């Protein structure tokens, strides 16, 4: 399934591309206009990407996720877990990075800092009730089923 997405580029950014024919997400790059920023250990930074989007459909969401290599090798993850870009948002996409390592991390202009994918939206219609249906698990949570 494909979707047309209009993109506005600023800060010298270029349009994101899929790395391979089967890539689920495009890489987002830092748009720092030739500069760089340093994220100290345990600190956060909002990194601009220089792109704003307008998807052709309103029943999709753009989701920003961490890059596994940065998270695993450098301890750089998203400060908010994932980023949600609603279909009606027209501002520049910023990526909130968090440095969970013990070393400062430098972000350079053009560095791949996150990835973005488009997913369908299923909207819930909530109904208030006094009880819920029973299941085997019930109210068990937070490790109640064990690790094996």
Report on the architecture of this protein.
There is one protein chain. The protein is mainly beta and 148 residues long. The chain has a single domain (5-120), classed as Deoxyuridine 5'-Triphosphate Nucleotidohydrolase, Chain A. 5% of the residues lie in helices and 36% in strands. It has one helix at residues 68-74; strands at 5-9, 26-29, 36-39, 44-48, 51-55, 60-65, 76-78, 83-85, 94-99, 105-108, 112-120. The chain is globular. The relative contact order is 0.25. The mean pLDDT is 95.
Structure in a nutshell:
The protein has 1 helix and 11 strands. The chain has 148 residues and is mainly β.
> What is the helix tally?
1
From the spread of the alpha carbons, the general shape counts as: globular
Number of domains: 1
Q: What would the average pLDDT be, to the nearest integer?
A: 95
Strand order of the largest sheet: 2-11-6-8
Please, what is the CATH homologous superfamily?
Deoxyuridine triphosphatase (dUTPase)
Uncertain stretches: none
**Structure classification:** mainly beta
**Proper CATH architecture:** Distorted Sandwich
Order of helices and strands: EEEEEEHEEEEE
Looking at CATH, which topology would you report? Deoxyuridine 5'-Triphosphate Nucleotidohydrolase, Chain A
Strand content: 35-45%
| Gyration radius, rounded | 19 Å
């Amino acid at each position: 399934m494909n979707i047309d997405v209009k993109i506005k580029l600023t800060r010298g950014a270029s349009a994101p591309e899929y790395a391979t024919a089967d890539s689920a997400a495009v890489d987002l790059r830092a748009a720092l206009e030739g500069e760089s920023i340093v994220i100290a250990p345990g600190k956060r930074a909002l990194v601009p990407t220089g792109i704003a989007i307008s998807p052709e459909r309103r029943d999709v969401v753009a989701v920003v996720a961490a890059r596994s290599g940065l998270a695993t090798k450098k301890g750089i993850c998203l400060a908010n877990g994932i980023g949600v870009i609603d279909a009606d948002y027209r501002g520049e996409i910023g990526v909130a990075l968090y440095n969970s390592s013990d070393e400062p991390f430098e972000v350079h202009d053009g560095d791949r800092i996150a990835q973005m994918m488009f997913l369908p939206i299923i909207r819930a219609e909530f109904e208030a009730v006094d009880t819920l249906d029973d299941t085997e698990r019930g109210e068990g949570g937070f490790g109640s089923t064990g690790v094996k």
